[in-house]
Design goal:
The chain is an alpha+beta fold. It is 26% helix and 40% strand. The chain has helices at 2-8, 18-25, 68-75, 102-115; strands spanning 10-13, 32-36, 42-46, 50-51, 58-64, 78-85, 88-99, 128-141. It is globular, with a radius of gyration of 16 Å. The chain starts with a helix and ends with a strand.
């Protein structure tokens, strides 16, 4: 019986609808990013994110050039994010585009730092890579 109730509360979509956008931004969330290692196993890390204001189904993230997640995404552009709030969660899947422009990368991480109430100056001098996730699947449980 529990399986039936659980299955009834899970919704699948190919885009982020308005209600899900609201849920993602209603409070500061720290999603878990999953990339794929060389051996096929997932690699997970907590990341900062923001929704692209100009493209409804793009999520913006950032990483330091050369980090494992950067290397994984260079090899395999598939990515999954999981946002949770207790038993409520949203999982987003898709492919990424990496932007290696260091000027944009620094601006993006500094904007994310402000959003997450961190000091943007911390990232000065770093080569940052912008990660743009193009959403292809959304799974929501609430």
């Amino acid at each position: 019986m529990l399986e039936t109730r659980l299955a009834e509360t899970i919704k699948h979509a190919s885009t982020i609808d308005a209600a899900t956008r609201e849920w993602l931004t209603a409070e500061l969330r720290f999603p878990v990013m999953a990339t794929i290692r060389k051996n096929g196993m997932p690699s997970q890390s907590v990341v900062w994110f923001d929704l692209d204001p100009n493209r409804a189904d793009v999520i913006i993230m950032n990483t330091r050039s050369g980090r494992l997640k950067h290397k994984h995404l260079l090899r395999d552009a598939r990515l999954s994010l999981c946002f949770e709030d207790g038993n409520d969660y949203v999982t987003v899947e898709g492919h990424v585009e990496l932007d290696d422009d260091p000027v944009r990368g620094l601006k993006v991480i500094q904007d994310l730092a402000r959003r997450y109430e961190d000091d943007p100056r911390t990232f000065e001098g770093q080569h940052r890579v912008t990660i743009e996730l193009r959403v292809e699947k959304v799974i929501r449980h609430d």
